[in-house]
Design goal:
The chain has 485 residues and is an alpha+beta fold. The protein has two domains: 239 residues, Endonuclease, Chain A; 213 residues, Endonuclease Chain A (Endonuclease, Chain A), CATH 3.30.870. It is built from 19 helices and 19 strands. A nine-stranded mixed beta sheet has the order 9-4-3-2-5-6-8-1-10, with helices on both faces. The chain has an eight-stranded mixed beta sheet with strand order 11-18-17-16-12-13-14-19, with helices on both faces. A two-stranded parallel sheet has the order 7-15. β3, α4 and β4 form a beta-alpha-beta unit. The longest helix is centred in the middle third of the chain and has 16 residues. It is globular.
């Protein structure tokens, strides 16, 4: 049930005062705003970082050292400089920050950084990495796929976006169609509690411990005071450069409070549930299965469906359990529509090979599958900067992880419809039982499924992909890698 009344707006209120007022007016409920465009998702994070008063807690799977990644790091450093306590957990697999820069940031008195399951990158020499893969294959494949951003324990963002250019429509060649939820109030406490659970886990290791150089299995990295100052100065200089941070973008971020009146009108105040996995996913330490809390919660939603299931997932590789679940839904008359990537748009040929091996089976089960085009017509609506990029026209691909049940319940989070999310990676997300919000998201996915944005899977969309991609995916189809997809 929608829990809200006329929004009280005061011209004198802006920023965190506005957020406090909204939470006070809707005690015991959660405010949800869907961030469907990359730029609005970026601006929301940037403004919140600039206006945090006490704490910022950040948890991401990918944190790149591209333009967005560096600017986000600089924003957290500025927050720490004004006294905000900043805590960051990043998965070890795909972090690419220079060792000295990472250590310099971790040495700031108001910044703490922990690396989740460090067996690949941070502080790990090559010979140790090889040993880890050989001795603990499941362990090195168990990753933290969570994506949360919590400010002052009052407001949070969760969803599909990592901290890199392509997740905010700022890559010149390849961007993701993604989705986040900006949430206020009650459920934020659950998100913060999940962060603390990961923070205190033995799997989350302080950066300083990864570079202490003790023994043969850690790098010996250190920074002196001058090097720390240089790292900070370079970050500030990068953010001040108009080439890296255009004045128009800076102005748009500073003007966000002026848009709060419109923002308030779009917030849905309702009941929401945050779902998450435990660190380590499950107790299985040998095999690659085992499930998890998010898997169980989403499976229950599918079992509850009586009319329609709409899913958007970049990867579509169903385990035996998932196949049985969707087959049962189809047999009881549930319409199942799925938006996923085509071979022409996908960034993951291995995952697509698993989907390609079972695509016809899914179609025969009665599933309606729509494969996203690499140059969808909706680009013009998604990209605020489309006119200046039209000549380059970057590829677009699905990255949103969303499910709508019976036009009433919506999940927005990090869970891909594949064995890796089911059994190996920790995942998070919010489930909202609210018809207006569910229909809003459903309409957005329906647009992505329209002709001009997607091809029907039954029409052999692979023919639109480059010949080299078709050859490579055929190779991966013969590889026994399904549990890792």
């Amino acid at each position: 049930m929608l829990v809200t009344g006329p929004t009280v707006w005061s011209a004198e209120l802006s920023g965190m005062a506005f957020i406090d007022q909204q939470i006070q007016q809707h005690k015991g409920t959660t405010g949800v705003l869907v961030l469907d465009k990359g730029e609005e998702a970026l601006f929301a994070r940037a403004w919140l970082a600039d206006h945090a008063q006490t704490s910022i807690e950040v948890q991401y799977f990918i944190w790149s050292t591209d333009n967005i990644g560096i600017l986000a790091t600089e924003a957290l450093l500025r927050a720490a400089e004004r006294g905000v306590k900043v805590r960051v957990i990043v998965d070890d697999l795909l972090i690419d920050a220079p060792d000295k820069s990472l250590l310099a940031l971790a040495l700031h008195p108001n910044i703490e950084i922990r690396i989740y399951n460090p067996q690949h990158s941070v502080g790990t020499p090559f010979h140790k990495r090889v040993m880890n893969v050989s001795a603990d294959f499941r362990g090195v494949n168990q990753r933290m796929h969570d994506k949360t951003f919590v400010v002052d324990g009052k407001v949070a963002i969760t969803g599909g976006r990592n901290m890199a250019d392509e997740y905010f429509d700022y890559d010149q060649k390849y961007n993701f169609r993604d989705r986040d939820a900006l949430v206020f109030g009650k459920v934020v406490g659950d998100i913060q509690q999940n962060f603390n659970q990961f923070w205190t886990s033995d799997l989350s290791v302080p950066v300083e411990q990864r570079f202490d150089g003790i023994g043969l299995f850690k790098k010996n990295v250190s920074v002196n005071d001058d090097e720390v100052v240089t790292v900070y100065r370079n970050l500030y200089a990068y953010a001040q450069s108009a080439e890296n941070f255009e004045p128009e973008i800076r102005r748009a971020i500073t003007e966000i409070p002026l848009a709060f009146k419109g923002l308030a009108e779009n917030i849905v105040w309702t009941n929401a549930q945050f779902i998450s996995d435990n660190p380590g996913k499950n107790d299985n330490r040998l095999a690659l299965d085992g499930g998890g809390l998010t898997t169980s919660a989403l499976a229950e939603l599918i079992k509850q469906a009586r009319e329609a299931i709409i899913i958007q997932s970049p990867y579509l590789v169903m385990s035996a359990e998932a196949l049985a679940l969707f087959k049962a839904a189809a047999e009881r008359g549930v319409t199942i529509n799925i938006s996923t990537n085509s071979l022409a748009s996908t960034d993951n040929l291995q995952a697509f090979s698993g989907y390609r091996n079972q695509r016809q089976k899914l179609i025969d089960m009665g599933l309606h599958i729509y494969e996203y085009q690499p140059y969808p017509k909706i680009q013009r609506q998604l990209l605020e900067r489309y006119p200046e990029l039209e000549d380059k026209q970057p590829v677009f691909a699905i990255h949103a992880k969303t499910m709508v049940i019976d036009s009433r319940i919506v999940y927005i989070g990090t869970y891909n419809l594949d064995p890796r999310s089911q059994n190996l990676n920790t995942e998070v997300g919010i489930i909202v039982d609210n018809e207006s919000l569910a229909k809003f998201v459903q309409e957005r996915i329906a647009i992505d499924m329209q002709p001009g944005n997607s091809w029907m899977a039954s029409e052999n969309p692979d023919k639109h992909a480059a010949f080299g991609k078709r050859v490579k995916v055929r190779f991966w189809q013969f590889m026994p890698i399904k549990p890792l997809l």
